[in-house]
Write a structure and sequence with these properties.
Rossmann fold, 6-stranded parallel sheet, 34% helix, 21% strand, alpha/beta, binds 6-O-phosphono-beta-D-glucopyranose, Dihydrodipicolinate Reductase, domain 2
Amino acid sequence: MIENCCCKTYSISDVKQYKEHMLQKEIKPTIDKREILCAETVPGPNAFVVFGASGDLVGRKLLVSIFQLFARDLLDDRFYLLGCGRKKFSDLDFRKKAEQSIREKSDLISPNNLDAFLSKLYYVDGDYNDSNFYERIKARLAELDKIHKVYEGLVHYLSVPPFLYPTIVENLAPAGLACTKKLHSKQHIKLVIEKPFGKDLPSAVELNNKIHRCFNESQIYRIDHYLGKETVQNILMFRFANTMFEPVWNRNYIDHIQITIAESSGVDHRASYYDKSGALRDMFQNHMLQMLALVAMESPISFEGDHIRDEKVKLLRSIRAFDVNKLDELCVRGQYIYSQIKGSKVNGYLEESGVRANSKTETFIAAKMFIDNWRWKGVPFYLRTGKRMAVKETEIAITFKKVPYSMFSSVGLDELPANVLVLRIQPEEGISLSFQAKRPGAKTCMSTLTMNFSYNELFETEPPEAYQRLLLDCMAGDQTLFTRQDAIETAWRLLSPIMQAWENDEYALYEYPAGAESFPAADNLIESDGRKWRQLLKA
Ligand code: BG6
């Protein structure tokens, strides 16, 4: 069954791990008219420890996502969650806080399921630097494991500021909460870490080294929430479950590829984090490069986690290093300034509270990249991402080469538009393909048409929130959608020349009005090659 499965299965790197996986998980295949085969990953029993449990993200996203999984019956009955944080909360306080967030955000509440879920939540407070805190967590886990009969899975989820990662990890180990053999013999312990994972190559290597002293790579789950998005996962199915695209997915047929993540929001309440980060670190190093890897990588030998992750890293390694002497031609940065959007005043980046005076942090980046391998040699990849742009929109657009010769020139049409395939990641998830077709009427009457597939229309449902997929996979021990150490380090290595160059003031930081779709320097990056950015929808 597993071998035949064309939906989600496992990351299995050796026989021992395979057996562990089989102990922990069960696959439930279902087939209906539309699905060829549908397998869902069901995790075994897990104790889920959340560090930073009194913080914002946990309330807004994590607890709501876990509740959704619970309400959809995707968690084992024995699952429980232990929140850990600095604030002094009782179990009851924590449950009340959770209830409030869930009531605000969840659409799956039934008369019984919320209370049943809340009864699985517990809390311990303490100081992250105090080794006693971890001893108390261990004692509480031992007590709760007995109540809930959890003897196998333990997940530590770090939802704390990144400077606390090493502190927590280094304290988990002496308390026996990191190394599997110190706990129950069957226990599999996992560590989940949010981005940012380092701020450059040296800091990422240092963090990886510290974590590896306590956890091995098969225990580490580095989250890039873009990989949990349905439409990002669909890139693999689209490319490798169909024969018709792969033969033309190369330099012989593709003219160029554009990847866009445009956001209409600004930095909101995250200015103090963002100001130290900027678009390159916040979006480009992770989400953008992961999407590039998925769209450009070779076919993995199987749907196993490490086979897919191997191909992604291979692709990232094939990206041509940025030439610092030509950086202006390859990479442009911008910062939004005050403007009016639909009649309302919108602050410039420098006016946002929490941003340093005269900050040079970029809120926009556009880059031209090349992949030096047989498939892609000479094909430009244009990537852009920015805050406070005209719309919120994420897409990958593949523009094919124009027909080599127009037989219609005899009737006055010398050049035909290129076919464009668009993988729309958000907000209106779907795929579209443009092509030329005859219009009814006059003998020679042609138009460019767009064939459009919309997820919402076809499946009549909104795609689930990315976090749900990722949480489920990490509890089930499937690392496919998590970023491996080598991918993180390769991405930082690639961007190092840009970060170093931008630190000195010789490189321009362009201004763009909040709500703009682009600006001249960013346009020039692509127009100097005779191409254009795709217009953002609804702009
Ligand atoms: C996060 C960034 O990783 O992704 C944010 O830190 C950004 O700055 C967010 O707004 C965008 O995610 P999404 O899912 O809304 O496209």
